[in-house]
Amino acid sequence: MEIFLRCNGCNRTLQVSSENSTDTCQNCDTATDLTLSDAILKHNVVDVCPRCEKSVFYIQRDFNQQVGVGIMVIFALLGLVCVWLDYPFYFYVCLGAGALLDLLLFALLPEITICYACKTAFRDANLNPDHKPFDLHVADIYDNRSKG
């Protein structure tokens, strides 16, 4: 399992293997200690976050959201060019192609587990059936935007 977390010193993303309980940032030399649970070590299943020790996680597809938005913007702009060239039908073809590409990526890409509290990401872990997709209310609680 690969663990991706933010450095406490410089806020850069660090990649840590689940075999290590301590890692040092190459940018600012800040040490990060992780408390790895038995489930992570023995079964490759995330039950408690090794960074913040909370147990509230969500799962999502392992895909950069900015890239996804960029792909759809490119297809939409291509469709607008088709409208400008007086081919309005191809506008819908472009949007449909973008949606099909998004669906294909959704089907092919693996799921990752992410901690609501500290945003630590866990790749190549066995999925815990207790973890559900992203819930905005839970995220608001951990981001201090909700009162309950």
Could you walk me through the main structural features you see in this protein, from its secondary elements to its overall organization?
- The chain has 148 residues and is an alpha+beta fold.
- The protein folds into two domains: 2-59 and 111-142, no CATH class; 65-107.
- Helices cover 36% and strands 21% of the residues.
- The chain has four helices and eight strands.
- It has helices at residues 38-43, 65-84, 88-108, 136-142; strands at 2-6, 13-17, 22-24, 31-33, 57-61, 111-115, 121-123, 132-133.
- A six-stranded mixed beta sheet has the order 2-1-7-6-5-8, with no helix packed on it. Strands 3-4 form a two-stranded antiparallel sheet.
- Helix 2 runs antiparallel to helix 3 (88-108).
- The longest helix is centred in the middle third of the chain and has 21 residues, at 88-108.
- The mean pLDDT is 86.
What is the secondary structure topology, with strand pairs?
Elements: E1 2-6, E2 13-17, E3 22-24, E4 31-33, H1 38-43, E5 57-61, H2 65-84, H3 88-108, E6 111-115, E7 121-123, E8 132-133, H4 136-142
Parallel strand pairs: 5-8
Antiparallel strand pairs: 1-2, 1-7, 3-4, 5-6, 6-7
Q: Which features would summarize this protein structure in a list?
A:
two-stranded antiparallel ribbon, alpha+beta, 2 domains, 8 strands, 148 residues, six-stranded mixed β-sheet
Q: In what range is the share of β-strand residues? A: 15-25%
Biggest pleated sheet:
6 strands, mixed
Shape: elongated
Give the rounded overall mean pLDDT.
86
Instruction: State Rg.
Output: 20 Å
- Order of helices and strands, N to C? EEEEHEHHEEEH
The assigned structural class equals alpha+beta
Instruction: Please give the order of strands in the largest beta sheet.
Output: 2-1-7-6-5-8
What is the terminal separation in angstroms? Answer: 33 Å
In total, how many domains does the architecture comprise?
2
Number of helices: 4
Low-confidence stretches: none
- Report the helical percentage: 25-40%
How many β-strands, per DSSP? 8
